[in-house]
Amino acid sequence: MRRVTFDLDVLRSFVTGMELGSFAKAADRLGRSTSAVSAQLKKLEEQAATPIFRKSGRGLALTEAGETMLGYARRLIELNDEAASAIHGVELEGWVRLGLQEDFGEAVLPDV
User: Which residues are CB-neighbours of 43 under 8 A, at least 6 positions away?
Assistant: First the structure.
C-alpha cells in the first residue's frame, strides 16, 4: 500500500462543504472560487484512490468511503487546530457583551 499524505487544506474544504451542505457555500466561507474547491475535491478522491462522492439527484452524496473520510478529516483538522493553538497560544473567540449607560457607551465605544 502506498503512503498517502492528505492535504489539510483540501480536507478543510471537504468538511466545510459537508457541514454547510454546499461546496459553493464552502468556497464562499473559505474565500475560494467554486472551481478551486471542485479541484480540491478531485484531488481528495485521487489521494484516496477511491470514489468519495456519488451522484444523488442533482447533487452529491458521500459513498461509504466518503463517510469514513469525513470522520477522519474532522479529527485531523481538530488535531491540527489544537496543535496550532498549543504552539501559538490560545486565540479567544466569541462574543463580549457590555452593560453600560447609554451616554458612556456612545462617548467611549463609538467605533466598536
Answer: 7, 10
Residue ranges in the chain modelled with pLDDT below 50: none
Closest by Cα among 49, 50, 38, 51 to 10? 38
Q: What does the alpha-carbon distance between residue 68 and residue 74 come to, in Å, rounded to a whole number? A: 10
CATH of domain 8-88: 1.10.10.10
The predicted pLDDT at position 72 comes to 98
Q: What is the 3-state secondary structure (H, E, C) of 49-76?
A: CCCCEEEECCEEEECHHHHHHHHHHHHH
- pLDDT given for residue 57 in this prediction: 82
User: Which cell is 72 given?
Assistant: 477522519
Every domain of the chain and the residues it spans: 8-88
Q: What nine digits make up the cell of 16?
A: 466545510
Do residues 93 and 81 lie in contact, with contact meaning Cβ atoms separated by under 8 Å?
no
Model-level pTM? Answer: 0.73
